[in-house]
UniProtKB/TrEMBL annotation:
Gene Ontology MF terms: sequence-specific DNA binding
Stored Pfam families: HTH_8
InterPro entries: Homeodomain-like_sf (IPR009057), HTH_Fis (IPR002197)
Protein name, per record: DNA binding HTH domain-containing protein
């Protein structure tokens, strides 16, 4: 389970058990992949997750960094589609999760009928927010069994595929439609917020692509290393979570 969501997960799963064909299971990821380091949990749990047709993982601002880190360090290409259930997450952050390997996302609280429809589409190999994922599932497993809320995968920068532009734009448009309350925000304030969000996400993606190597990330971004460091300090971004464990 995502740290900090354990109680919510158990209550949510219990309240939706026995409803139609959607079957939910709450499971500690550490139970499937015991041992250290923590950032390699998904890589170690990949085979155990293949018995499920889909995984649902809650993501909130407090857990976003953890989810992003384990997705970036998951290693091998995922075999189980993951649906991120997001709580107050901004559009750029959701796009980052999609680029890191999430097959789809839903706003919490989720409608179980909609969740079942999305999982059914993924099980059939239908289009998702990211490139094609091969759904898992052991012999005899019920259709669209949901593995709640264990992040089911991710791939390293070398193995990652970028989500199609059309689907990313569709996701962004859907999220912006929910932010209509900010329409009266002053221009200067709105611009500052958008620029800050862009800088944070750009830095995180650059660090993720280059395994936390600041010099390489700065060079690939066509920025001086000192300027890159200054932006990292401005947004309080640490490179260590993006480095591969030794």
């Amino acid at each position: 389970m995502t740290p900090g969501h354990e109680a919510w997960v158990r209550d949510w799963v219990a309240s939706h058990q026995g409803q139609g064909r959607l079957r939910l299971y709450a499971q500690e990821l550490s139970a499937l992949a015991p041992g250290l380091p923590d950032t390699r949990l998904l890589a170690r749990a990949r085979l155990a997750l293949r018995r499920y047709d889909g995984c649902v993982i809650p993501v909130a601002p407090t857990s976003l960094s953890w989810v992003r880190t384990i997705l970036a360090n998951a290693g091998a290409e995922p075999r189980t589609p993951l649906v991120a259930m997001v709580f107050d997450i901004t559009a750029p952050a959701i796009l980052d999760l999609l680029a890191l390997g999430a097959a789809d996302f839903m706003r919490a609280p989720a409608c179980t009928d909609e969740l079942r429809a999305r999982l059914s589409r993924l099980c059939r190999g239908g289009p998702s927010m990211t490139p094609q994922m091969a759904p898992g599932g052991a012999a005899g497993a019920p259709p669209c069994t949901v593995r709640e809320p264990v992040p089911g995968y991710g791939a390293r920068a070398s193995a990652r595929r970028t989500a199609t532009r059309a689907r990313l734009e569709a996701a962004l448009a859907a999220l912006h439609a929910q932010d209509a309350t900010l329409a009266e925000e002053p221009f200067r304030q709105a611009k500052s917020r958008v620029v800050a969000g862009f800088e944070r996400e750009y830095l995180r993606r650059a660090l993720s692509r280059h395994g936390g190597n600041v010099a390489q990330a700065a060079r690939a971004s066509s920025k001086h290393r000192r300027a890159f460091w200054a932006l990292m300090r401005k947004h309080r971004i640490d490179a260590s979570p993006y480095r591969e464990p030794r």
